[in-house]
Amino acid sequence: MTNGLGLGDAYSATLERIKAQGVEISRLGFAVLMWISHTERPLQVDELCHALAVEIGSTDIDTDDVPSIRTLLGSCQGLVVMDKEASTVRLVHFTLQEYLRSRPDLFNKAHSTIAETCLTYLNSRPVKDLSINPSHDLQNTPFLKYSSVYWGTHAKRELSERAVSLALELFGQYDNHISTKLFLNQVRVSGLTDFRALSLFTGLHCASYFGIVKVAAALMEKKGCDVNQADCAGNTPLVWAAMLGHEGLVRLLLKHENIDPDVPDKSGQTPLSWAAENGHEGAVKLLLKQEGVNPDRPDIVPDRTPLSRAAENGHEEVVRLLLSQEDVHPDRSDIVLDRTPLAWAAGNGHEGVVRLLLLREGVHPDRLDIVLDRTPLSLAAENGHEGVVRLLLSREDVHPDRLDKHGHTPLSRAAENGHDGVAKLLLGREDVNPDKPDTALDRTPLSRAAKNGHEGVVRLLLSRDDVNPDRIDKYGHTPLSRAAENGHEGVVRLLLSRKEVTPDRSNQYGHTPLSRAAENGHEGVVRLLLSRKDVIADRSDEYGNTALSRAAENGREQVVALLLERGVNPDRPDAVFGRTPLSRAAENGHAGVAGLLLSRNDVNPDSSDKDDRTPLSWAAENGHEKLVKLLLSRGDVNSNKSDEYGHSPISRAVENEHQRVVELLQARITANTYSV
Fold first, then answer.
1. Model confidence over 191-227: pLDDT tens digits?
2. Which domains can be identified in the chain, with CATH numbers?
3. Which of 112, 196, 240, 486 minimizes the number of CB atoms within 10 Å of its CB?
4. Is the full-model pTM beyond 0.85?
């Protein structure tokens, strides 16, 4: 079995052994297999045990009839195991699930049996007696949550007359039944759900959610049934049915003489809007035929029409249906992002919808939204939708190099996100400037691609004669600087191969590509830059910090080793605070870096900065025990040296309650005293 050989025969043989166990134990074994292979989620141990104790139609739950998990597992002859970590029960192997599904003869009406069991449990006296807001947990009714949430799913798949009867019994008290709250808690339909008004969620709402036509029809025949009543989430039964695509339920509700087919929910979405958003073509057709349905009605916020929502989600047939309506505006924008259906479809890459919309008169293919000045092309390029970009570029009325509010072109957006195919299409246009910087940070497409490590786009841009590979942005960063900062070795290698690129160019703060790569610990990039003779490895920025200082401060041990091999000054203080690389490493507890520096004869382990603070002072203040030990192991470190403010290393450690460091320093001071 474990090798997957002859599994079907092995499973069949095991089932025969289950049948041969005796009537009751055999019945139990097959019941366990039925439940585990047909439930909507893995059952907890207690859930399964209690489910199997339910006698369909009974009003009581006899806990004495609840079988033990050992009995259940034994009855299945090894086909079922318990997952101790998750406390769930499952089949021994996924192939068993496939095998059981191929044997419909094994279980008689599994889903209707499960539905009837769930409903019997919900209608039982112990459950009905529970408060809708129980003050205690539900340990005594472990099957309650599953029953509340999934009974309708099973009933929808296979409905029996008994299940209908049991459902109607449940709905007779649904306004005050705990299962109502458990169900709504699970489905979490909307942040607008008012759990203080659970009584508004009726049996008809529930039947509409699950799409159980026969139950809904029986409820609608009852006196006083309001088919337009909004529940605690603001949804009518029709909203639920349309949202979830229950075509039969939609048809049933629309036949009711009092139905208002255009009643929206709390956010202003109508049944048509929900059906369109979720691509339920059948429900959309039914609603569009109904008198009183406005096919272009926007919701409240963000003022989206059914067409806008269908276009966003790529529901091509629904879009086609809506566009066939004379009173649907194909280019209407919403009020939040000011995006048209075309913009939504383009941004999400729905080629078929884009093609349909571009065929319509009145659709502006290059319309700027008023919020971010984004065009459909800009949105499609940003998200890498090559097919949509190709469609839009085929239009003469689309400007391929148009700037958005932040000064980005479609090429800039595509380059930033590494969309090689889109970049290639745009670069094929003569009216696209491949080196056009944005207006906010003065960054070119190359700069953005380099920063994010998109080698393919960088290679495309560098193949152009009209792209400056060394152009600086607003803050003096070059494409090389951006790539080095983020550790993109491939891009750095491409840029260094260009003669026009200055590998040691500093930005307005004096940072070079090497210093940025060193600070961030990008060993490969540092190695590439150090291989260049025109890179000054010990160059300092405007604060006097070198690449070594930056690497030491951030604990970049391998980078520190590379720089020391290059022959940089290992003890050079910065120009502002007089801090050495060792001082920075000590402050941040980087013992590995400190060890490398202390192994050098040209590093002073007791050097003072402008406040007369030593590496030991910094390490002690921050409680870096390992580093304190390392420094104290040196005979040339003064363990009791006071700084400009009169603080010694031990006083700094005491102040910050670093007891172990205090003990180490005290021992050293005592030893020094006695040695004197």
1. 566 777 888 999 999 999 999 999 999 999 999 899 9
2. 1-187 (no CATH), 193-329 (1.25.40.20), 400-499 (1.25.40.20), 503-604 (1.25.40.20), 607-676 (1.25.40.20)
3. 196
4. yes
